[in-house]
């Protein structure tokens, strides 16, 4: 494996970044922090979460927040404003002079960074987190039009990916999907990775974690993620209603999203409102406690290219019940660390939940296997692989570290 001979200069371009709540944003943030923690110079260009542009230093990572506007129909989400974006990115490339640009999508900001980097002769890596299914509800695409819109979106994504020097996806299934959609070049599966030290089994903290979130001390199924249509959390609530006659159980949902009020209404309609706990936005530093409070993790979504939340739950030692769709089967070894269920089938989900919530001995065995499987996704391995890709794309032994101009933490004109 190619090893860096000096600190690398990496510019990460992403259309979503914390405080946004989604897997792609979290991956970009953890990639930036991980690379910086290994001694590299890391800058991130992303939309401003407040609208106005600014530059700030977060630990060892410099963030360039570009002017943004709220997305239609999605008041909690923002996108970078195209006007002036290209010029700002061009100036950033000249000042920072990165060894590589690592784009996290094919959307506006990432696409502009890729184009500018190519014009400057800077190698480009693209990691694909894209699934049209994750956009239909946000863009309010009518169901009869979703197939056609999805086909056009994939065609656009494949075209943009063709401009990158190296393309990665989180899982082999995601890589296969990209090839199925017409991408003819090599696609490498590189796990998003998991911090095995932050997310680890902590059974002694269960009671304290439940108290921290106001959860009664009973069997607890947890889910972490957006409360949006593609996550199909309504299936999990319906499954909970089915298991209550047999188990004293509850569901804890950590996250925010457009469907929260609908989900609350559904829980009330099914008579389980007192058993479904909406924890709201949970800061990243508190996420390990959410998993520590649980006995099992359930995910019903059908558009997961990997699911960082599922990996976090597994690393914490939780059994998993997941929809048999997209990349989730890569994480569940049926009968060993959990079970799969047919998507859209709350009765089967309920049956699988009853299985993992069975005896304490069963839970411990399934949870131990989850942790063992999660060890394959150590984020240090992922960081090492990306380092190797960056070095290879430079095509030569790096020259001695060049001086980098300072970026002040102040508003900037875009």
Alpha carbon gap, first and last residue: 40 Å
Please report the number of helical segments. Answer: 14
Number of strands: 16
Low-confidence stretches: 396-406, 408-414
Query: How much is the radius of gyration in Å?
Result: 22 Å
Structural class: alpha/beta
Helix/strand order: EHEEEEEHEHEHHEHEHEHEHEHEHEEHHH
Strand content: 15-25%
Shape: globular
- The strand line-up of the biggest sheet is 3-4-2-1-7-8-9-10
The main pleated sheet reads as:
8 strands, mixed
**Mean pLDDT across all residues, rounded?**
89
How much helicity do the residues have? Answer: 25-40%
What does this structure look like?
It is a single chain. The protein is built from 14 helices and 16 strands. It has helices spanning 23-37, 85-96, 108-119, 133-139, 143-161, 172-180, 206-212, 233-243, 260-269, 287-292, 308-315, 346-356, 360-374, 379-394; strands spanning 9-13, 41-47, 54-58, 61-66, 68-71, 74-80, 100-103, 124-127, 166-169, 188-189, 219-224, 249-254, 276-280, 296-299, 320-323, 338-341. The strands form three sheets. Strands 3-4-2-1-7-8-9-10 form an eight-stranded mixed beta sheet, with helices on both faces. The longest helix is centred in the middle third of the chain and has 19 residues, at 143-161.
């Amino acid at each position: 494996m190619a090893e860096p001979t000096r600190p690398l200069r990496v510019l990460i371009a992403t259309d979503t970044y914390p405080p946004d709540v989604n897997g792609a944003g979290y991956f970009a943030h953890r990639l930036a922090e991980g690379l910086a923690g290994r001694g590299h110079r890391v800058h991130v260009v992303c939309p401003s979460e407040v609208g106005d542009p600014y530059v700030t230093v977060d630990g060892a990572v410099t963030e360039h927040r570009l002017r943004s506007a709220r997305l239609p129909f999605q008041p909690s989400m923002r996108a970078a404003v195209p006007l002036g974006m290209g010029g700002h990115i061009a100036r950033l490339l000249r000042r920072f002079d990165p060894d590589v640009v690592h784009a996290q999508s094919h959307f506006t900001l990432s696409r502009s960074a890729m184009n500018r980097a190519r014009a400057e002769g800077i190698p480009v890596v693209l990691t694909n987190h894209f699934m049209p299914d994750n956009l239909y509800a946000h863009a309010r695409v009518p169901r009869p039009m979703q197939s056609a819109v999805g086909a056009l979106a994939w065609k656009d994504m494949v075209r943009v990916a063709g401009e990158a020097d190296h393309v990665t996806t989180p899982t082999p299934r995601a890589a296969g999907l990209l090839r199925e959609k017409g991408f003819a070049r090599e696609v490498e599966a590189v796990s998003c990775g998991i911090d095995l030290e932050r997310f680890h089994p902590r059974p002694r903290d269960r009671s304290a974690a439940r108290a921290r979130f106001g959860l009664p001390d009973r069997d607890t199924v947890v889910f972490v993620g957006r409360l949006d249509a593609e996550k199909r959390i309504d299936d999990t609530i319906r499954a909970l209603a089915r298991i209550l006659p047999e188990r004293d159980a509850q569901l804890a949902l950590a996250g925010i999203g457009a469907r929260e009020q609908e989900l609350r209404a559904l829980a009330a309609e099914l008579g389980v409102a007192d058993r479904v706990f909406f924890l709201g936005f949970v800061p990243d530093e508190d996420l390990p406690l959410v998993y520590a409070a649980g006995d099992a993790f359930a995910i019903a979504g059908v558009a997961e290219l990997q699911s960082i939340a599922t990996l976090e739950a597994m690393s914490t030692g939780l059994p998993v019940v997941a929809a048999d769709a997209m990349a989730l089967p890569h994480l569940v070894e049926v009968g060993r660390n959990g079970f799969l269920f047919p998507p859209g089938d709350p009765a089967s989900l309920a049956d699988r939940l009853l299985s993992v919530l069975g005896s304490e001995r069963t839970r411990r065995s399934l949870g131990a296997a989850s942790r063992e499987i999660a060890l394959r996704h150590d984020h240090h391995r992922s960081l090492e692989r990306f380092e190797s890709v960056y070095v290879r794309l430079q095509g030569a032994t790096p020259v001695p570290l060049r001086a980098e101009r300072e970026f002040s933490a102040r508003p900037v004109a875009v």
